[in-house]
Design a protein that fits this description.
Blueprint (H helix, E strand, L loop, with lengths): L1 H21 L4 H15 L3 H29 L5 H24 L2 H21 L12 H18 L4 H10 L4 H27 L9 E2 L2 E2 H22 L4 H23 L1
Antiparallel strand pairs: 1-2
Helix pairs in contact: 1-2, 1-9, 2-3, 3-8, 3-9, 4-6, 4-8, 5-10, 7-8
Protein name: Probable membrane transporter protein
Subcellular location: Cell membrane; Membrane
Membrane topology: Multi-pass membrane protein
């Protein structure tokens, strides 16, 4: 057990550092690393992806709190947007966890790889959609939140990769969109975690120390360390050439995604 904790502490350290440095959701880093660790442990391939997604979601429940607090202190969280979209993301993420729990690992891995390619391309090009319209009404916000929630559950992220472009497209300033996405990430993480816990009960292949599909040793290691290393990443972001590093990281995401795809197929 001690070796496992050390392994997951390393996952948390790297995830927190990269999240702080690049401003990306930790799930993009956590999920591939958890899959590597689970393979080393000999965890059943049939539930490996569900465990990784669920544990990633659970970790975001903790890490998003400090992020929201920091953005809110700077007045960068638009709580009216959070309230307007919260219902959709709660329903979408909770429902998405049911879809992910029912899908085979191969399908989930392929979907995750496609999403990695999308994020890597976005980072490599460094483009945000042009602001062209106002935020939609209640129905539109509910629908957008539902889509963001479902995709977030399927790839184990806090939704910022989708919610930030959505808000920028609707004339929300970038810094405010980033802060608000942190507020949206918490209900996404809570709903996804609850859904994965519920769907994981009774699954025979689960390893010990699991709460539903949430693997507690991994969660403990990630949470304890990522909240400490994320501020280091933020400090490095102010002293290193982040645009160049983002392009290098985008290439790394392509490599990780391609390796996952090859191993899957």
């Amino acid at each position: 057990m001690f070796e496992l904790i050390v392994m997951y502490v390393m996952v948390g350290a790297l995830a927190g550092l990269l999240a702080g440095l690049f401003g990306i959701g930790g799930g993009l880093v956590i999920v591939p690393m958890l899959l590597f660790c689970f393979t080393k442990q000999g965890i059943s391939n049939d539930i490996m992806m569900q465990l990784a997604l669920a544990t990633s979601m659970a970790s975001i429940c903790f890490t998003s709190v400090s992020s929201v607090r920091a953005h809110n202190q700077r007045g960068a969280v638009d709580w009216s947007i959070v309230k307007g979209i919260a219902g959709g993301v709660l329903l979408g993420t909770f429902g998405g966890s049911f879809i992910a729990s029912a899908l085979p690992t191969t399908a989930l891995k392929i979907f995750f790889v496609i999403f990695l390619y999308y994020v890597a391309t976005q980072m490599l090009l460094g483009k945000q959609p042009k602001a062209s319209r106002e935020l939609p009404g209640m129905g539109g916000m509910l629908g957008a939140g539902g889509v963001i929630g479902v995709v977030s559950a399927l790839v184990g992220i806090g939704g910022g990769t989708l919610s930030v472009p959505f808000m920028v497209w609707h004339n929300v300033p970038l810094h405010r969109a980033i802060g608000t996405s942190a507020g949206i990430g918490f209900p996404i993480a809570v709903a996804g975690t609850l859904g994965y816990i519920f769907n994981g009960f009774g699954v025979a292949e689960r390893p010990g120390y699991s709460l539903g599909f949430v693997y507690l040793p991994a969660l403990l290691g990630i949470v304890l360390v990522s909240v400490l290393t994320a501020p280091w990443g933020v400090k490095l972001a102010h002293s290193l050439p982040v645009p160049k590093l983002k392009k290098a990281f985008a290439i790394l995401l392509y490599v990780v995604g391609t390796r996952m795809l090859i191993n899957t197929l």
